[in-house]
Specification:
The structure holds two protein chains of two kinds. Chain A is mostly helical. Helices cover about 70% and strands about 0% of the residues of chain A. In chain B, helix 5 packs across helix 6. The chains are: A mainly alpha, B alpha/beta.
């Protein structure tokens, strides 16, 4: 879809530079540059703040050059220079403007301190000159990176990204590696009190660039993933070893990662459970459900009501209450399903949205306070125990989540590849025709709702047991939206997509804590970028991928055939 | 022996009588066509038979059993299957999957079986996939089983739709303009294929068709509808001579050029 440009490279370069400069100004004015002035990526060399206002220029110039290519080397370098200059001029204009009039009345972050940062700590005139020169160097660098051979180029770019990431996430990485004894001390030596040391950065650079360079030399094997059920070509032994390795890793994760990350993983797994359920309703059967949190709430509250001594003279144990909670969810799934059988699309979404709110408001209401505890919620919920062993830390509950996810994912996968899964899919594709094929749409839809509700309810029971309490406030609309988003990000209808989506959507805000109050700004930008570059999701279902990338895959297959033919003639 | 009998079927949409007192008698193992100008009520009649519409008056009998008012999925279970005027495949499913959905009424595997994959389920799945492939071969789409339905060429999509309809092992197959949008040679193939359906699979065929050449060459009996009323019925030869039919086509021919052309060919042959 890249249309050949007719504009002259110079014009494009200046345009790109101005836009990049505007982005850098924006990041400065929202306060991100100043907020990260002391966070070194490489200690004593450059800070995250500098990355934030220089990276837009570097990156956008690079993409601009890629867009206008092929061009002679001289043109590439000069247009890079021009773009950098244009970006620098915009930033310089901000400083000049700020020194003439007081911008702080409008932009609270437009402080003299910011200008000093942008001018690399120098006074007005030398500062502006340095800024312009640095920006131009960035532009030329972007051009220079583009000129070098692609394998080397990709390795360098990856290594630079990794350095930024590792430097930024220093504290998180250290909380994990500090638990590892001697290895941890080795890792710690790479880091300065803020960011990486210069030596550490060099090591990361060489390591990452080396790995990428080596990997790109390997023959590509990914093409088989584009076929439906493509992994069957692997040797069974290799496959079992991989599966075994993954299971072992999953079992060992809590002790390796420590409490902080185990807690994040618990949240991720909880959302995976819900995602797998909603994926059946939305992804397989095509029924847009915006009130999905209701079933999570019903699972959690059933567990609470049955096991809390506060509300119940004879509290049950977790395991005794679990079947009741599951039944309650299935029944409520059917109850929601019945009135909405005839509804499709938007209408269905609104009704389910209402259902979610009704459940939350019922839990909150004073009227039902004797049973559900009103706004106080329910406390003292039982924790799952095996004999005398109680699962009560995040790390122990991780295993409960793991088992739950394992079972649910297995069931979801089997259902997808069964007659039931086909029926759901047919219903999603064309309801009228599906009915004309003899499919009972009432039973099929109710089955989807009930299965989805069940999975979400299981997540709810573990959630209740983890916190030992439930509150109506945890059951808000945002949960439904998050689950829906993770399915879309992972890839609609794809089971591995649910895992990836949950990891990205639920895991990244935790990692992005480094960005403090800018966390959700960055998060939003990330999601937008992701959906723009991969509309089919991060790990799409094979058929969705076929749908969206048919031509590319066909072209790739053709190219492969040609190279194979060429190889054989040699 | 009649397989499908309609008795005084009337279907109204508001004040409009889409079908008024239609009698129809389809004999077993025949190819029976319904023709008529646009808006005559042909597809509405199909929808009444398959259960998508419930007629206000009248009865529809399949094998002497009343199926009026049954839901569409129940009607399919009784042995009626159909295709659509504008192809309605499950576009994002493969050819085999499309047929497997069509075979739904004959498959038994349930939820628990699907999760545990017991022997019966695996066995059933295996035989049904084989059966689906056999059907693909029958309609001339051998080896196209793993292709997404939407990626098949137009003519192949038409044939896949018929294969899907055959999946439910119907006694009666309703084809709604199976040659729409086809060139003469494709049309000829389709005519041949419809005959094979009747001769080899012994399925009764009720056909809506606009191309007179097709209708006249394959139908044993033709029913002509106009403005929701049955105006004629008979063998191709009788229909060609029928004054009311010629009037229905030619009299309003000025409004519909297509109808005029067809009717004039009908009158000329």
């Amino acid at each position: 879809m890249r249309t050949p440009t007719t504009q002259s490279p110079w014009k494009q370069a200046i345009q790109t530079g101005l836009i990049a400069g505007a982005v850098a100004v924006l990041l400065s004015l929202v306060g991100m540059v100043a907020a990260f002035k002391a966070r070194y990526i490489i200690s004593g060399v450059f800070t995250m703040g500098q990355v934030l206002f220089l990276a837009p220029i570097l990156m956008m110039t690079y993409f601009m050059i890629r867009r206008i290519s092929p061009q002679p080397t001289r043109t590439v370098l000069i247009s890079g220079l021009l773009a950098g200059l244009a970006g620098g001029v915009v930033l310089a204009a901000l400083i000049l403007l700020g020194s003439i009039i007081d911008l702080q009345a409008m932009f609270i972050n437009a402080s003299p301190e910011l200008y000093r940062l942008l001018a690399f700590g120098q006074s007005m005139v030398p500062g502006l000159v340095i800024l312009l020169v640095v920006c131009m160097i960035m532009g030329v660098l972007a051009g220079a990176i583009f000129i070098i051979p692609s394998r080397l180029r990709a390795s360098i770019i990856q290594a630079l990204l990794w350095i930024t990431l590792v430097g930024l996430l220093r504290d998180l990485i250290l909380t994990v590696t500090n638990r590892w004894g001697p290895v941890g001390r080795l890792v710690k030596a790479l880091f300065a009190p803020s960011g990486l040391t210069i030596v550490g950065a060099l090591i990361v650079f060489i390591l990452i660039a080396g790995i990428y360079y080596w990997r790109m030399g390997q023959p590509a094997r990914q093409s088989s993933a584009f076929q439906l059920g493509g992994s069957s070509t692997q040797k069974p032994l290799v496959r079992w070893l991989t599966i075994g390795g993954i299971i072992l890793l999953l079992l060992l994760l809590p002790p390796i990662l420590g409490i902080f990350f185990s807690d994040i993983l618990d949240t991720v797994f909880m959302y995976i459970l819900m995602g797998l359920g909603l994926n059946i309703v939305v992804g397989f059967a095509g029924l847009l459900d915006l009130g999905y949190v209701a079933f999570f709430a019903i699972g959690a509250y059933t567990m609470g009501v049955l096991t809390s001594p506060e509300l119940n003279a004879n509290p049950m144990t977790y395991w005794q209450a679990l079947p009741f909670a599951m039944i309650a969810c299935v029944v409520s799934g059917v109850i929601l399903g019945l009135p909405v059988l005839k509804m499709r699309g938007d209408y269905l979404a609104i009704v389910t949205l209402g259902f979610g709110e009704i459940v939350r408001l019922l839990a909150l209401s004073d009227w039902l306070r004797p049973w559900f505890g009103g706004s106080q919620g329910i406390q003292l919920i039982a924790q799952p125990r095996f004999g005398n062993f109680v699962l009560n830390t995040q790390q122990e509950l991780y295993y409960l989540f793991l088992i739950g996810v394992g079972i649910v994912a297995f069931v979801a996968w089997r259902l997808r590849d069964s007659r039931m899964g086909r029926t759901w899919m047919a219903l999603r594709e064309d309801e009228d025709v599906a009915i004309a094929m003899g499919i009972n749409h009432v039973a099929t839809k109710l089955m989807a709702f009930a299965t989805g509700a069940l999975f979400s309810g299981i997540a709810g029971t573990i959630f209740a047991a983890k916190l030992q309490s439930v509150y109506p406030h945890s059951m808000n609309f945002l949960v439904s939206i998050n689950v829906l988003s993770l399915i879309i990000i992972g890839g609609m209808g794809s089971i591995p997509g649910v895992f990836v989506g949950a990891l990205v959507l639920m895991g990244s805000p935790e990692l992005l804590r480094e960005f403090a109050e800018f966390r959700y700004l960055v998060y939003g930008a990330l999601l937008m970028a992701m959906m723009l570059t991969r509309p089919e999701g991060l790990w799409p279902d094979a058929r969705r991928r076929l749908e969206l990338h048919e031509e590319e895959i066909a072209a790739k297959a053709r190219a492969e055939v040609e190279t194979a033919a060429m190889g054989s003639t040699k | 022996m009649s397989i499908l009998v309609a008795k005084e079927v009337t279907k109204r949409f508001g004040g409009l009588n889409a079908l008024s007192r239609i009698d129809l008698d389809v004999k077993e193992k025949t190819i029976h066509s319904i023709i008529g100008p646009n808006g005559a009520g042909k597809t509405t009649f199909f929808n009444c038979v398959t259960g998508f519409y419930t007629p206000e008056e009248g009865e529809i009998l399949l094998d002497n059993k009343n199926i009026t008012g049954l839901s569409p999925d129940r009607v399919t279970h009784r042995g009626v299957s159909r295709t659509y005027q504008n192809i309605r495949l499950f576009k994002n499913m493969t050819s085999v999957e499309n047929i497997l959905v069509g075979m739904h009424p004959h498959l038994k595997s349930g939820l628990i079986g699907s999760i545990l994959r017991d022997r019966r389920t695996v066995e059933e799945e295996k035989t049904s996939v084989e059966e689906a492939k056999r059907l693909l071969q029958f309609v001339g789409l051998r080896g196209k089983g793993d292709m997404m339905a939407m990626n098949l060429p137009y003519g192949a999509q038409r044939r896949l739709e018929i294969a899907r309809a055959l999946g439910s092992k119907p006694k009666l197959l309703l084809l709604d303009e199976p040659t729409a949008g086809m060139n003469p040679s494709e049309t000829q193939e389709m005519v041949h294929f419809i005959r094979r359906l009747r001769d080899e699979l012994e399925i009764t065929i009720l056909l809506i068709e606009h191309q007179m050449r097709v209708v006249m060459s394959i139908s044993e009996l033709i029913t002509v509808l106009d403005f929701g009323e049955k105006i004629a019925e008979g063998s191709p030869a009788q229909i060609q001579k029928n004054a009311r039919v010629i009037e229905a086509y030619l009299g309003r021919g000025a409004a519909s050029g297509l109808g005029q052309n067809e009717a004039s060919t009908a009158a000329a042959t």
